[in-house]
Task: structure prediction
Amino acid sequence: MKVPFSPPDIREQDIEAVVEVLRSGWITSGPVGEKFREALTEFSGTAGTMLLNSATAGLKNALRFLGIGPGDEVIVPAYTYTASASVVAHVGAKIVMVDVEPGDYFPSAQRIRAAITQNTKAIILVDLAGRMVDTAPFYEAIEDAQPLFHPSNALQETLGRIALIIDGAHSLGATGYGMHSGQAGDFTAFSFHAVKNLTTAEGGALTWRTENPLSDQVEHFVKLNTLHGQSKSALEKTNSAGWEYDVLFPGYKENMPDTLAALGYSQLQRYPQMIARRHQIIDSYTQALADLPVTALAHSGTDAQGRSWNSSGHLYLLSLDTLGLAERNQFIEEMFNRGISCNVHYKPLPMLTAYRDLGFKIDDFPNAYEAYCHEVTLPLNTVLDDKQVEYVQETAKEILSRMMK
Ligand SMILES: Cc1ncc(COP(=O)(O)O)c(C=O)c1O
Result:
């Protein structure tokens, strides 16, 4: 039996929705995108959303909007995908990397607090695996660091503090701490990349919460910045005799065409059921592996105030607690030989050439390294049928029982 890691879940209605756009006479950003972004804003309960070509563009637009650049520092965790940090380099600011907590995949607010300096302009936190970060202690840390905050433009002055940006590439549809994903950070970036829960092949969105004091200014900026800085979109030019336009600043090209928005909008109609199916698979895996010395990252629970939280069920992170790096890799190889594709989330950033070249050393991030050595990600997607789920968990159990004897 073959079990791919994360194939896209494309149904007949998705194909029809894309074909309808292809036949409509308008295929780039237009009315379908408008419908999709309004639906996303409503789904996440946020102040507004802009559709983009990626989550990376979403994070970058938040930084650009805030005017963060050379001389500024942005704090990011070491245990994440490169895009959480590369965007900081893209705007010319300094990446300040923090380790995660021992035995965990996330940095604490205390650790972030210790990394804040008078140059810190933003903190990027990652909703890893689709679990929302509890932002309350991070806002507290930001509040306490107020005397260190030195705004360098009017927008930063209006915000009045360090910005909290969520890399929500994994977390569309997650809930927690009385919120939906998108409502916790000042800004949240979602990814609709091909391997994500909800996909547009390539794509993403930036959303911002109603409490963001800059919320009425983001849309205007992002619209311009992602369409060359041009004062009118292609559709606006087509729909009026007023062909003339201006370019207000040398912007970028990061918009989402309607062909892709149609796929996203179609998937959003059944997204709650997709999340529910993911949780079924997560529960099944966790139950099957319960007798082994492994730790699965939890995807639901209850917070300190008794409120339940539920992830988007994006990734099944499993820590093979008693196995080392070589054995972890052997497990992945054996699973592959049995037709099952696994993965690792993540190789910590300081182990990658780009970040080593920037001077980061993995020895300074021992907790991230330890988490990496034990971690394996099992296939989790909504294309898996019950037989495949059983095959994955029984095969993993068999191999691990042997290796862990
Ligand atoms: C944690 C995290 N952040 C950001 C991204 C980037 O998303 P995109 O490919 O949509 O730019 C990814 C993509 O895999 C991711 O896993």
Remarks:
- The pocket of pyridoxal-5'-phosphate is lined by residues 54-56, 80-81, 83-84, 126, 167, 169-170, 191, 193, 204 (CB under 6 Å).
- The chain is about 40% helix and 15% strand.
- The first strand starts at residue 48 and ends at 52.
